[in-house]
Backbone:
C-alpha cells in the first residue's frame, strides 16, 4: 500500500516537535509529502545518532584491550631485551628481569591507554539507500565490516534490495579503509627503520584492525541507544539487523546493550524482528538465550547465523590477531543455541582469492537470500 505509514509518521513527528501541523498540511498541498517527510525523518535520525555519540560509554576495559596490551607488552619486552643484549645502557638496571618487566608493563599501559582513546566513535551515520520508507513494513539496517568505510552498500546488500519489499539503511562507521591500512604499513616500516620501538608498541594497538575492532563494540552500544530513542523512521516497522564480518561484532555488541537497556526500562523497550550474521568476526561469549528473551517479541529462532567452515580469514587470520582464541569465530562454525538458526554456505564459498579465501559473501548474497527465505518472513518485492 503506497504511503501506508505517511500519516502516522507525520503525526509522530508532530508529537515529538519535529514538524508542525501547518508544515504537514503544506507538504500535502504541494504534492511532495513523501520526500519532505523522509527528509525530516532522516534529520531526526541524525540528531538522535549525534546525541547517542555524545553520551557514549567511556573508560570501559574490553578483552580486545587486553589482547592489544599483551601484544604491546611482548613487543616492548622483546625490544628491551634486544637493546640490552646489543647496546647496554650506561647505568645497567638492578636486574635484567626487573628491567624487562618494567619495560613490558610500560608498553602494556601505553597500549591500554591507546585502546581507550581510539575506541571513541567520532563518526557514525545511518543512511537510507533503497526501498520506500513510506510504505515498507520491514526495515533492514546493514553493517559492513573491516576496511569498508565509505564503501558502496549495494556491493554487499543489493540482492536484498532487489528481491524484498523493504526499506534499507546502511550504518556508515569508522571501519577503516584500504588507504588507512597502507598508511599503517608505511609508518610501521618507518618506525622499524628508525629503531623507534616505543612508538611501535603504541602503533601495534592503533593498527587499523584493532581500531576497527575496538570501535565495533562502541558502535554497537551507540546504535542500541539510537534504536531505543524510537526514531520515527523505525516507528511501527519490523526491524532486521544484518552484519558482515566485523559488522557482526557490531551487532553482537548492540544485542548486549539493547538487552540490558530493555530489561532495565521495559516500558520503553525496542524489539527487533531478526538478526542476520554473515561471516561474523567475533567469538560468542554465550548462546544468546538470555539476550534473545529481551530483544525479540517471541521465542522463535530469530538470530540467523550464516557461516562457512571454509572461511580461512576467520579460521586463521582472526585467530592469530586475537592471540589464538580457544573457540572459533561465529562466522566459521554453527552456534549451539536454541535461539540461533545456523545456515551453512560452505559449499558455495571455496577458499580462493576471488572469495577473499572464503570470507567475502558478495558473490553469494542471492544464494544466502534464498536460504534465509526458509526462516524469515520478509515480503518479496
Residues:
Amino acid at each position: 500500500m503506497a504511503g501506508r505509514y505517511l500519516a502516522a509518521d507525520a503525526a509522530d513527528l508532530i508529537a515529538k516537535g519535529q514538524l508542525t501541523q501547518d508544515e504537514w498540511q503544506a507538504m500535502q498541498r504541494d504534492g511532495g509529502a513523501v520526500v519532505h517527510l523522509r527528509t525530516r525523518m532522516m534529520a531526526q535520525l541524525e540528531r538522535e545518532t549525534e546525541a547517542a555519540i555524545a553520551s557514549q560509554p567511556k573508560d570501559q576495559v574490553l578483552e580486545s584491550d587486553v589482547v592489544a596490551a599483551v601484544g604491546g607488552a611482548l613487543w616492548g619486552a622483546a625490544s628491551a631485551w634486544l637493546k640490552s643484549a646489543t647496546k647496554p645502557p650506561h647505568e645497567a638496571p638492578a636486574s635484567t628481569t626487573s628491567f624487562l618487566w618494567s619495560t613490558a608493563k610500560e608498553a602494556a599501559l601505553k597500549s591500554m591507554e591507546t585502546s581507550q582513546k581510539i575506541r571513541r566513535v567520532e563518526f557514525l551515520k545511518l543512511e537510507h539507500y533503497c526501498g520506500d520508507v513510506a510504505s515498507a513494513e520491514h526495515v533492514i539496517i546493514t553493517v559492513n565490516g573491516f576496511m569498508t568505510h565509505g564503501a558502496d552498500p549495494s556491493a554487499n546488500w543489493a540482492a536484498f534490495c532487489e528481491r524484498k519489499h523493504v526499506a534499507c539503511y546502511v550504518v556508515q562507521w569508522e571501519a577503516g579503509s584500504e588507504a588507512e591500512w597502507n598508511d599503517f604499513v608505511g609508518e610501521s616500516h618507518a618506525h622499524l627503520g628508525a629503531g623507534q620501538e616505543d612508538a611501535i608498541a603504541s602503533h601495534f594497538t592503533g593498527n587499523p584492525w584493532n581500531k576497527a575492532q575496538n570501535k565495533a563494540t562502541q558502535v554497537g552500544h551507540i546504535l542500541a541507544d539510537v534504536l531505543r530513542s524510537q526514531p520515527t523512521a523505525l516507528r511501527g516497522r519490523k526491524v532486521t539487523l544484518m552484519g558482515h564480518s566485523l559488522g557482526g561484532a557490531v551487532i553482537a555488541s548492540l544485542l548486549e546493550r539493547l538487552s540490558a537497556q530493555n530489561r532495565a526500562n521495559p516500558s520503553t523497550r525496542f524489539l527487533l524482528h531478526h538478526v542476520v550474521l554473515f561471516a561474523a568476526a567475533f567469538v560468542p561469549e554465550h548462546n544468546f538465550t538470555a539476550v534473545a528473551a529481551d530483544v525479540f517479541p517471541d521465542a522463535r529462532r530469530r538470530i540467523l547465523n550464516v557461516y562457512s567452515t571454509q572461511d580461512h580469514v576467520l579460521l586463521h587470520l582472526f585467530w592469530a590477531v586475537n592471540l589464538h582464541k580457544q573457540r572459533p569465530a561465529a562466522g566459521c562454525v554453527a552456534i549451539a543455541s536454541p535461539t540461533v538458526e545456523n545456515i551453512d554456505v560452505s559449499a558455495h564459498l571455496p577458499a580462493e582469492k576471488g572469495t577473499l579465501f572464503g570470507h567475502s559473501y558478495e558473490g553469494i548474497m542471492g544464494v544466502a537470500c534464498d536460504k534465509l527465505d526458509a526462516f524469515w518472513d520478509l515480503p518479496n518485492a
